[in-house]
Amino acid sequence: MKTTRITCMIVDDEPMALSLIESYVLKTPFLELRQKCDSAIEALTLIEQEPLDLLFLDIQMPDLNGLEFSKLVPKTSRIIFTTAFSEYAIEGFKVEALDYLLKPFDYAEFLAAAMKAKEWFRLVHGPHKEESDEKAQNFLFVKSGYKQLKINLDEVLYFEGLKDYIKIWLRDNSKAVLTLMSLKHLEKQLPSHKFMRVHRSFIVALDVIDEIERSQIIINNKRITVSEQYKPHFLDYLKKNSLD
Predict the structure, then answer these.
(1) Among positive and negative, which fits the CA dihedral 59, 118, 108, 148?
(2) Residue 2 above 50 pLDDT?
(3) Whole-angstrom distance between the N-terminal and C-terminal Cα of the chain?
(4) Which of 3, 42, 56, 194 could form a disulfide with 37 if both were Cys (CB 3.0 to 4.6 A apart)?
(5) Which CATH number do you get for residue 187?
(6) CA dihedral angle for residue 180, residue 185, residue 190, residue 192, rounded to 10 degrees
(7) What values do phi and psi take at 130, rounded to 5?
(8) Number of neighbours of residue 167 by Cβ within 10 angstroms
């Protein structure tokens, strides 16, 4: 499954707004938070070091406001303005902002703006960006308890579905990470060249398979049955990666 990952930065001098937008970004699968800062001056230095796809940018900030800063941003970076003042809307669109979020805004409003950005990048970059993003994507953030945990996909052995929860089994952990999510939703976020669903309750990391015995995959002494529903896809993978 190809997944577009849009790298982004949040710039806002209000700590509560910065924290809220960060929480929105982290729960949006196609957004990848790279930087957050509380001043446009700091943001200017950071984006010169690492160009990013998308900026969530407050307008009213000291020293250098968002509108002034937006004129200094590389043309490859797009902007969604976030502000409490509606009178800036026209000026915001004059600098070709993708969207304009009026504070306070909820996650549904944020997601609508983020989807607009996703569609813009899809139209501009086409499938090539999606393919490169798929290869580059090597981690996921998952909610476990009250934390957002970063899961390195290279460390994953397999995902085990338990009704509304998923157990994430990692190489060096005897105890699984438990997160509230469905396997169906997770499957859409994973790079298909690295992971495959082989059972209603299991998605496996293909490069850690130790053995295959009849209809069972063995990973770290765990036997996982390949169900009939997923067997044709798995056999096709085996055929392409076997020496006759």
Answers:
(1) negative
(2) no
(3) 28
(4) 42
(5) 2.40.50.1020
(6) 150
(7) -60, -40
(8) 15
Q: Distance between CA 83 and CA 67 in Å, rounded?
A: 11
- pTM exceeding the 0.70 threshold for the entire prediction: no
Burial 169-202 (b: 16+ CB within 10 A, else e): bbeeeeebbebebebeebbebbbeebbbbbbebb
Residue 83 pLDDT > 60, yes or no? Answer: yes
The reply to whether 17 and 127 lie within a common domain is: yes
| Domain C-terminal end among 97, 116, 136 | 136
Closest to 185 measured CA to CA, from 142, 236, 232, 229: 142
Higher pLDDT, 189 or 92: 189
Residue whose structure tokens are 């806002």: 12
Alpha-carbon dihedral sign for residues 25, 27, 30, 35: positive
Phi/psi of residue 153, each to 5°?
A: -65, -25
Domain that holds residue 118: 6-136
Dist. CA 215–CA 122, nearest whole Å: 39
Domain boundary among the residues 136, 168, 199 is at 136
Tell me: do 12 and 105 sit in the same domain: yes
Q: Which of 100-114, 178-192, 206-220 is predicted with the least confidence, judged by mean pLDDT?
A: 178-192
Tally of domains within the chain: 2
**Which pLDDT does position 133 carry in this prediction?**
46
- What is the average pLDDT across 159-168? 92
Asked whether residue 111 is domain-assigned, the answer is yes
